[in-house]
Amino acid sequence: xxxxxxxxxxxxxxxxxxxxxxxxxxxxxxxxxxxxxxxxxxxxxxxxxxxxxxxxxxxxxxxxxxxxxxxxxxxxxxxxxxxxxxxxxxxxxxxxxxxxxxxxxxxxxxxxxxxxxxxxxxxxxxxxxxxxxxxxxxxxxxxxxxxxxxxxxxxxxxxxxxxxxxxxxxxxxxxxxxxxxxxxxxxxxxxxxxxxxxxxxxxxxxxxxxxxxxxxxxxxxxxxxxxxxxxxxxxxxxxxxxxxxxxxxxxxxxxxxxxxxxxxxxxxxxxxxxxxxxxxxxxxxxxxxxxxxxxxxxxxxxxxxxxxxxxxxxxxxxxxxxxxxxxxxxxxxxxxxxxxxxxxxxxxxxxxxxxxxxxxxxxxxx
Length: 366
Fold this sequence. Notes:
CATH class of the largest domain: Mainly Beta
Structural class: alpha+beta
CATH superfamily of the largest domain: monomeric porin ompg
Largest sheet: 12 strands, antiparallel, barrel
Radius of gyration: 30 Å
Low-confidence stretches: 1-26
Helix content: 25-40%
Mean pLDDT: 82
CATH topology of the largest domain: Porin
Strand order of the largest sheet: 1-2-3-4-5-6-7-8-9-10-11-12
Number of helices: 4
Shape: elongated
């Protein structure tokens, strides 16, 4: 095996060694445990004391109007199994949107590369919609009621299985789809997602259904059930900058929706979301350290396979040169074989010299 390695083409061997050196010197990726898709955060929470800031910019297209929402906030890890998230938004760059706070508690094993994860959140929303239709409101004194809702996230991290597939699948169930409409509608939101993770970046797709049931108010007796709903799909990806900062972009499309004839929801067509995440305080946890090691092992295995292919290619190349030289030594044709033979012999000497140098380097490395 060793004699085979030292006989490969020097360019291929040098390229493989350079790739291995580049991997060894690569920067550590700053990757939070709670990273998920655009719509669904992972069941994992940030490490204790870790802080991440985020800025979201979203836009929506309906049959009647365009809308835009900007949101700023952050996450902080607490006690290893809890996370506090808070944010505030501006709607259409003109008026204050809802503020929100979320306390998430996850299952034990958060600091391991676990296959199954589950988290429960208490979600507090402070709506800025002027509620003048609820039974306790009037036109001169709108209500701005807070809403506390639960939500649940479960996920499967397939990289934790023996085959180490870098796939993570998500399921999210909650009672909020649009915080600004909580005063008017009882809501139910269910979503599923799949994310293919690489060493730095990822691609994902989410799909879900959002259901609305109008509450009894001064204008309407309310709905008996969830009479309005929409089904949507939202593909996107995460791109990491300088191994630390993340840009998450996604495009959501409404696949199907059912609306009422009277007091209907605004028909939704599509939405665009772009988020920026920046770790402020970060200490790598065991979960992501193990994930990084798995990615590195997979990359090294791919390079080893490529290295083996290059060995075979190198053997084939030198074998062809040997055959050509042997054939030229037999002579007999009118072509200038002597000059061609000298050129090929010279090339072979140069290759053998370089191989000897590489063999010496490999011995020193050993």
